[in-house]
């Protein structure tokens, strides 16, 4: 795999320079009662804002989500999701006007509110624009950054029996098709990051194949969301590691060795940064 140069990710009027030498660390803030790792910890506004500010100190930005997408999660109405994320995003923007803020949603209504009321820089969409037909227009009209992810189904059914003929080829084809659709809708590729969707409708073997694949043909940087995912337990067991954090660090080193610009979405940016040698 060739070493890539620094690549730009355009997010509104802001340009994020992604370097092969140091991944951009996007902290995870779930303001939900039922997320798989930290559900309920930051459901209160004060606790959520406090955690968001801490993540901004530790990393490069924060991604705020108000609907769990863990396997089996129950959908949340847009109004309820807005009520969870918008006040937190607005307060974070007030406290840190320069901060990089992202909203984790597949609903156009929530994305529109986060952009208009809190000035988020990017939208992280697990539905890749397929779960809400209005999403592409929102992204195109507001010129924000966009994370387009492959999911093998909705949370309620995605892990029941995921089957692929060739998981790498199928995910690659899907992401290429979404890039074409976004471009046709007016969202330039320079605004898009791609996410292969580790843990979203995949087995342990599928996840490993996706992690080991070469994605350079897509010609866009990837966002990797590995933090605390259940597939890390297999790596921990195989390599006799003490916990999932150690397994995450192992995969992060593997990814860094490829010398490709990328974003890591993580729960604990400071610990990850130290383990990766960023500080």
Characterization of this structure:
- By secondary structure, this protein is an alpha/beta fold.
- The protein has a single domain, classed as Dihydropteroate synthase-like (TIM Barrel), CATH 3.20.20.
- The chain has 9 helices and 10 strands.
- It has helices at residues 45-58, 78-95, 108-118, 135-142, 167-185, 204-212, 232-238, 244-256, 269-276, and strands spanning 7-11, 14-18, 24-30, 61-65, 101-104, 122-125, 145-149, 192-195, 222-224, 262-266.
- The strands form 2 sheets. The protein has an 8-stranded parallel beta sheet, covered by helices on one side.
- Helix 3 (108-118) packs parallel to helix 4 (135-142) and helix 7 packs across helix 8 (244-256).
- The radius of gyration is 17 Å and the shape is globular.
- The chain starts with 6 loop residues before the first strand and ends with a helix.
- The model has no long low-confidence stretch (mean pLDDT 93).
Using the coordinates shown, work out and report the CATH topology. TIM Barrel
Shape: globular
The total of helices stands at 9
The radius of gyration over CA amounts to: 17 Å
Please list the strands of the largest sheet in the order they lie side by side. 8-7-6-5-4-3-10-9
């Amino acid at each position: 795999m060739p070493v890539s140069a620094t690549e730009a990710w355009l997010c509104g009027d802001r340009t994020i320079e992604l370097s092969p030498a140091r991944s951009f660390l996007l902290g995870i803030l779930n303001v939900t009662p039922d997320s798989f790792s930290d559900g309920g910890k930051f459901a209160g506004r004060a606790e959520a804002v406090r955690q968001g500010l801490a993540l901004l100190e530790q990393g490069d930005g924060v991604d705020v989500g108000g609907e769990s997408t863990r396997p089996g999660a129950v959908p949340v109405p847009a109004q309820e999701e807005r009520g969870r994320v918008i006040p937190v995003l607005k307060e974070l923007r007030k406290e840190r006007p320069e901060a990089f803020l992202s909203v984790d949603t597949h609903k156009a209504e929530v994305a529109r509110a986060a952009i208009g009321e809190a000035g988020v820089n990017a939208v992280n969409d697990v539905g890749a624009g397929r779960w809400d037909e209005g999403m592409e227009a929102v992204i195109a009209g507001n010129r924000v950054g966009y994370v387009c992810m492959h999911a093998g189904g909705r949370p309620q059914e995605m892990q029941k029996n995921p089957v692929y003929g060739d998981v790498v080829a199928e995910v690659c084809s899907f992401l290429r098709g979404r890039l074409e659709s976004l471009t046709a809708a007016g969202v330039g590729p320079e605004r898009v990051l791609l996410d292969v969707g580790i843990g979203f409708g995949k087995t342990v073997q599928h996840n490993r194949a996706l992690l080991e694949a070469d994605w350079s043909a897509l010609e866009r940087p990837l966002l990797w969301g590995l933090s605390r995912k259940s597939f890390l337990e297999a790596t921990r067991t195989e390599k006799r590691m003490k916990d999932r954090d150690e397994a995450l660090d192992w995969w992060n080193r593997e990814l860094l060795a490829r010398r490709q610009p990328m974003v890591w979405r993580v729960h604990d940016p400071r610990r990850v940064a130290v383990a990766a040698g960023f500080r």
